[in-house]
Amino acid sequence: MSNTKRQIFLGIETSCDDTAVALIDATEKSVLKHCIHQQVEHQSFGGVVPDLAFKGHSKHLPNLLNTLLRSACVDKDEIKGIGVTAGPGLAGGLLVGVMFAKGVSIALKKPLWAINHLQAHALVPRLCDDLEFPYLALLFSGGHCEFVVVYSATEFYLLGYGLDDAAGECLDKVGRRLGFSFPAGAAIEVAAKMGDPLSVPLPIPMRDKSLNFSFSGLKSAALRWINIEGEKKLSFEKKANLCASLQYAIGQGIQKKVENFFENLPQESHPRAAVFCGGVAANQYLKNMLEECFSQYNVRLFTPPPKFCTDNGMMVAWNAYEKYQAGIAPSMNFSIRARWPIGV
Length: 344
Ligand code: KG4
Ligand code: ZN
Description:
acyltransferase, metal-binding, tRNA N6-adenosine threonylcarbamoyltransferase, cytoplasm, alpha/beta, Nucleotidyltransferase, domain 5, tRNA processing, 40% helix
């Protein structure tokens, strides 16, 4: 049955190894249905293989969208607009998503918006909570670390960024050596619950005064520890200790940057809210650590539930709605942008 108050948006995400689609009702801030296909074929390679990702998206996206539209009980006429991730990400996957979305947009006669994957991560907490602009966003994924002020749905000011390995990449590479399947972040979190965070001496990453991030030194230190201990001889207890220590060091590194941000910032200039987002924000331990850190500055930290942190179609659909609300004209006249910074 058609309900005129609903504002339904479709989101399509294919920037990395997850093929994801979703339908949301932006009025109710509810997810009508979301579907995701996680490509497992990369696991034996220990990282995403672009060619396999491209093939996987072309194979699964049509069926996934079909399943979504059939199972969501939504009249296609009710869909108000479509969002598709146009970058940053792997060119092949982005191309599949964008070409497919343009076809759907023509077939259904619905407006289309090109979505920046990083902006979508930073905005999705507004789908999950009542969160007003401006706010601070700490975005950590498999390929990015960003310290951003989100002024509006279209204005992002980059305060700091990753200089080398991202936090997720560090977890994935260490996890690979521990024999965990890719991506390893979630498995590291589980193992860490049984470990002692102070047992393996690891360096706190990049303790300088900037707001930039660097996790490659931490990754190397963890890999060196594995080499010294002997990869094959590692007991589960030792692995758990390393995971707990790695998580702790990542948390400490992020906390240091938060402290840098607030240092010399008068109370009246403190942001009202902050968000922790991107795949790494699915980590409950890091979420707790950062919540405590922000509470010292009387700033509330919002972290979306895990399924909104890792790549998903909801964040792309929500970002299309945000653009629509902000009066940004839809367009077919765009191409993919494998490199596309979040803002200035
Ligand atoms: O945002 P995302 O899904 O994809 C990218 O845009 O990269 O982030 C993926 C990253 C991977 O590195 C993965 O290991 C990490 O997020 N991740 C986690 C957890 N779940 C996923 N890291 C820590 N703890 C988790 N529970
Ligand atoms: Zn992502």
